[in-house]
Design goal:
The chain has one helix at residues 5-17, and strands at residues 40-48, 53-63, 70-76, 81-88, 91-99, 102-111, 114-123, 130-139. By secondary structure, it is mainly beta.
């Protein structure tokens, strides 16, 4: 078989016309420590179902040193108390705990810069004993 110059020219043009683009998927952000997703200062809008009122304050979420998978929520309930919570993925669990006359427990979920929390606060220090059922949305 005899290969001619025009054939080689056509073959070269055809090879150059073939272009393959390889797109790599966007990188997935993986935190070495899941708590990093929760840490920071949040502006909170809290709704009390018990009293049908909205309260506004800030909380600071920090890693609990010496407690892997745990964070502290400082100024929780706008009452200056520091609550210990467990982080599992995007979920936050506040186990039952008694702090400064408050019994607190609840849970939450984070989505980007928004933290939604649902919890109860049993206030033993108030003039009358009550349980406050709350939900809050916090943004950083």
């Amino acid at each position: 078989m005899k290969i001619t110059v025009p054939f080689l020219l056509i073959l070269a043009v055809a090879i150059q016309a073939c272009h393959i683009d390889i797109e790599e998927p966007a990188p997935v952000i993986v935190y070495a420590d899941e708590r990093d997703y929760f840490t920071g200062v949040f502006n909170v809008e809290e709704y009390s179902e018990t009293f049908d009122v909205h309260n506004y304050y800030t909380i600071d979420v920090v890693k609990a040193a010496g407690y892997p998978g745990m964070v502290y929520l400082r100024n929780f309930y706008g009452a200056g108390v520091m609550v210990l919570a467990e982080v599992e993925g995007v979920h936050l669990y506040i186990p039952h705990q008694e702090i400064n006359g408050f019994e607190i427990e609840g849970e939450g979920i984070i989505n980007d810069h928004r933290l939604d929390l649902y919890y109860t606060v049993h206030d033993h220090l108030a003039a009358y004993d009550f349980i406050d059922y709350c939900s809050s949305t916090a943004w950083r």
